[in-house]
Amino acid sequence: MGFFVLQKDKLNDFLASLEEYEVWAPVQNGTTTLFEVIKDFQNLSLDLKHQVLISKSAVFPQTESLFTFDRNAHPQATNLEKKKETIIFGIRPCDAQSFQLLDPVFEGDIPDPYYLNRRNNAILIGIACSEPFLNCFCTSVGGNPFSKEPLDLLFTELDSVFYIEVITEKGKKIIDKTSTLCAPASSDERKQKEQMAHTSESKIKRKIDLNHIPEKLTGIFEHPIWKKLAMKCIGCGICTYTCPTCYCFDIQDETRARKGRRVRVWDSCMFTEYTLHASGHNPRPTRGERLRNRIYHKFKFNIDNFGVVGCVGCGRCITLCPVNVDLIENLSAIKEVE
Amino acid sequence: MKNPYMPEIAKIIEIRDEALGERPISTFKVAFQNGHDFNHQVGQCAMIGILGIGESMISIASSPTKKGYLEFSIMKMGKVTSALHACEAGDTISIRGPYGNGFPINEWKGKNIITIGGGIGQAPLRPIIQYILANRGDFGQLDIIYGARTSNDLCFKDELFELEKGKDAKVHLSIDVEEVEWTRYVGFVPDNLLKIKPSPENTIAVTCGPLVMIKYVIKNLLELGFSDQQIFTTLENRMKCGIGKCGRCNVGPIYVCKDGPVFSFATLKNLPEF
Amino acid sequence: MNIQKLRDEAKRALNRKEVKYLIGYQKGSYGFRVSPAFIESKEEVDRLIFSPLCALSLANYLMLEEKLPQSEDKKKAKATKIALFARGCDSRALNQIIAEKGIPRDELYIIGIPCKGVIDLKKIEARFPGVVDFAEVVEKNGNYIVTIKEQIFEVPKEELVADTCKVCQYPTPLIYNKLIGDNVEGYPANYDEIHSLEEKTLEEKWDFWQKEFDSCIRCYACKNSCPLCYCEGCVLDKLTPQWVRRSVDSSENLLFHITRTFHLAGRCISCGECERVCPMDIPLMKLNRKMEKEVKELFNYEAGKDPVSQTLLTTFNLEDPEDFIL
Amino acid sequence: MSEFEPNIVAFLCNWCSYAGADLTGTTRIHYPPNVKVIRVMCTGRVNPLFVVQALRQGADGVLISGCHPGECHYLKGNYLARRRFLLMKNLLEFIGVNPLRLRMSWISASEGKKFADVITEITEEIKKLGPLKSFKREVI
């Protein structure tokens, strides 16, 4: 659709000039980066490695109030009003891929208005991974450090400029709005970007061959390996909260004197309370069942329900797990189980 | 776009105590304030709750043939159900739904029906009985096998005694432990089923109750010659959204709230976690 | 640290009829990672290692709910003990858990390892980015010898060692059945880092903590990785009444962390796990070490010194300070 | 602008301080009405989380008052509470909440006058400090 170039020092002006949009961007927060509506462009951070809280939180926030009410009067919906169009800037290609896994869940036969109100209103601008990180394995799950869907614009950081690829109409609109800052890209910049794409792909060190894992999983549901693999897991929520494709949530009521609200918050299948019945019975009582459910959900059930693997290979669950529960190690252990 | 999380407000018309004791069960008769038409199917559920406390998924205990109101039989168990049990007639509650696939009752036309319930498990079966009684000619013989721990744990006693006298259905009540003026069967429901020995010929068996009872009932039904397609049951899991999004009620790849809670044993058999 | 001696000791432990299994460290799945190992039989003992990379606390696994299934002969022998390696801080955690009747002393077979300090994974991964193949680290007179494939690097210990280990008072285990290696001298108590925050004004302190708690995502890793956080029905999970709400905002996160810090007052043994595991790098140890300092100064009490002493908040002294009381 | 009237929550132990407060009333000693009293059986019963929740839900200051050391109806309740609230006060100060917002006092059943003085002193101090905005639970 078109290739442009933006001088690196012009990035802040580029984002500032889009003030009729609500711009979400990775913001420096100590040693990690948070995804927030950016106010002060100084602490915009393009350090993709420390994006712990991911672009998913721009369309599926960790805490979102569904409606407010007072003592059984008719509830008023919140977070559904028509909002300014939003731009989500600085998305890693693997995180962008996760939108394609979240969308079918929240669309489906009963669409979720809260997610779709934000998602359909968002323009996605990605930044290609020129330097993949320690545990990236996106190439093993059909992804790529320079993959484009479902982005509207893809930035690639060359030495002095950003190389911008326009992918969709929405992206074109943004470039038209900022035409004074962007210039058409020259062919050698394009070659430089292709070259970078190629070398970046070759830098990915972690790999796993996924074929016939779903068939292997069908047979080993009762296998004792799950208990062994989960022995070191401490049942915290890091792997699920920092995972771009995890969408489980909890609904709770919170009241203050006569007023209250129903709120939707992220939840994790690794917590005990997740499937605990009021009677005390828990279909998944130990960490073995929970780890098994997480792997089955992403590498079997997601294929049964949506036809695609539920993982984008971003490697965060491997990097951030405090006790080194390694998804790739677990998947290879499953492949060898007889 | 309709907001699936937004509940309707309904008023409690009447509360009938079904079972007393440590885990009391009451039947709540509720009607929508603004005449909202719920048009649910037999066997579907709804998310009932009190704004400020929470919601829980309860099967609708009245059949769609009963117009103008809904009935829910609720056992006092957790935070929401205890709050519901503290309500009186005239209080308002929030209802969201209907959810779940419900029983395929139209496919059962012309067949004999056996309902096998245990304790509170009789509540999801009650709409089947009411629907059959309302369209008595469309169905064959109706057997109601129902048991509970003690006689005051039996729900819908007056209705069932009524039916026992009449000709519309054969009622086989049972209690687990001997009691003085109890003349009917004493023992567990699966054993009562074996004693009655219903013929699988053109018959559908539906069972609800504690998980251990369901497992034995299905085993006995298979022994009696029932095929997998003829046996139906409902599964219960912790549910929060009711529309297959929040991810917690899954049994294998299927979600109990959306693809269930009613399953034929044919689908249930190859589900991993059952 | 002589690895062979450690493995022999582990073999001897597993030979004992009453030991169910042994918890130790093994090579992680990539780069500098180390993973816990649950060893049941003598043959698997060669997986065991110990190096400055062994940062996680094994004492935490004693209180997680379900244990490893027992092999047939162990079941026959009615094995009741769990063997584990314990560094200085782990041994203090064991002391505290035993003193609080969390686990009986005779259910533990403790192999003590005097520890010269562990490496902060974030620091070494920043220093040597992108290391996926296995790497070895050995400490030699004040420097870390890091070997990655064939290359060898020498890095001053000061650069890579975890902050909590820089002020560690008890590197030599205080409770053990067997001790491997010679004692290590602890540092004197040092709370400069806490003093520097204490001297700030109330507003500055408030803003500092408000920003930290704002980035907390309530993943419960600090709670689940802490050896002393093992209460059956934790108040943070309670629904009736609900103390801490599930919605994640700085106000609820503040209550979450105040509750955790207060419930660890006089119990926390500064192993630094909560700070190590936090994905958002929140300096949680500042809170715990502030309470450690207060408890030392006000009540002259230290957590985990021995497995018998009464816990802090269940006792009192007549001369406890009361100048703040009207 | 009407002058700021602080909200003070007071946990009074039933045997001593509550009786003392009662005595203050019966002897018609005047004290500021800002205090909201919660009767507890012993200061040892007061969970430190009560203090934090009170501050988060509208209280500008909290007082825990009980029997003098040695007079506790349950022998050691006040000693245990003394340790608890000294630690909680220092922790709150470390996080940025003024320590004057969490006070403790020994008031026996006969010290009606002292109860009035304590309440007056606390109300004055908290009036000077102003409302505790930052610590509030998010209003819905």
Question: What can you tell me about this protein's structure?
Answer:
The complex is a heterotetramer of chains A (338), B (274), C (326) and D (140). Chain A is of the alpha+beta class. Chain A folds into 2 domains: 3-202, no CATH class; 213-336, no CATH class. Chain A contains 12 helices and 12 strands. Chain A has helices spanning 11-16, 56-59, 93-106, 113-119, 169-177, 187-202, 213-219, 225-230, 238-241, 287-306, 316-320, 327-336; strands at residues 3-7, 22-29, 32-37, 63-70, 76-77, 86-91, 122-127, 153-157, 161-166, 182-184, 249-256, 259-266. An 8-stranded mixed sheet of chain A has the order 3-2-6-7-8-9-1-10, with helices on both faces. Chain A has a 4-stranded antiparallel sheet with strand order 5-4-12-11, with no helix packed on it. In chain A, strand 8 (153-157) and strand 9 (161-166) form a beta hairpin. Chain B is an alpha/beta fold and 274 residues long. In chain B, the strands form 3 sheets. Chain B has a 7-stranded mixed sheet with strand order 10-9-8-7-11-12-15, with helices on both faces. A 6-stranded antiparallel sheet of chain B has the order 4-3-6-1-2-5. In chain B, a hairpin with a 2-residue loop joins strand 13 and strand 14. By secondary structure, chain C is an alpha/beta fold. Chain C has 12 helices and 9 strands. In chain C, strands 1, 2, 3, 4, 5 and 9 form a 6-stranded mixed sheet that branches. The radius of gyration of chain C is 21 Å and the shape is globular. The longest helix of chain D has 19 residues, at 77-95. Chain D contains 4 helices and 4 strands; from the N terminus they run E-H-E-H-E-H-E-H. In chain D, strand 1 (8-13), helix 1 and strand 2 form a beta-alpha-beta unit. A 4-stranded parallel sheet of chain D has the order 2-1-3-4, sandwiched between helices. Chain D has 140 residues and is α/β, with parallel strands linked by helices. The mean pLDDT of chain D is 92. Chain D has a single domain, classed as Rossmann fold, CATH 3.40.50. Classes of the chains: A alpha+beta (338), B alpha/beta (274), C alpha/beta (326), D alpha/beta (140).
What's a concise summary of this model?
The complex is a heterotetramer of chains A (338), B (274), C (326) and D (140). Chain A is an alpha+beta fold. Chain A is built from 12 helices and 12 strands.
In the sheet with the most strands of chain A, the strands line up as: 3-2-6-7-8-9-1-10
Largest sheet of chain C: 6 strands, mixed
Sheet with most strands of chain A? 8 strands, mixed
The Rg value of chain A, from CA coordinates, equals 21 Å
Overall 3D form of chain A: globular
- State the share of residues found in helices of chain C, binned by percent: 25-40%
Distance between the termini of chain C: 56 Å
Series of secondary-structure elements of chain A, N-terminal to C-terminal: EHEEHEEEHHEEEHEHHHHEEHHH
Radius of gyration of chain C from the CA trace?
A: 21 Å
- Category by helix and strand content of chain A: alpha+beta
Total helical elements of chain C:
12
The largest contact between protein chains, plus residue counts on each side, is:
A-C, 47 and 46 residues
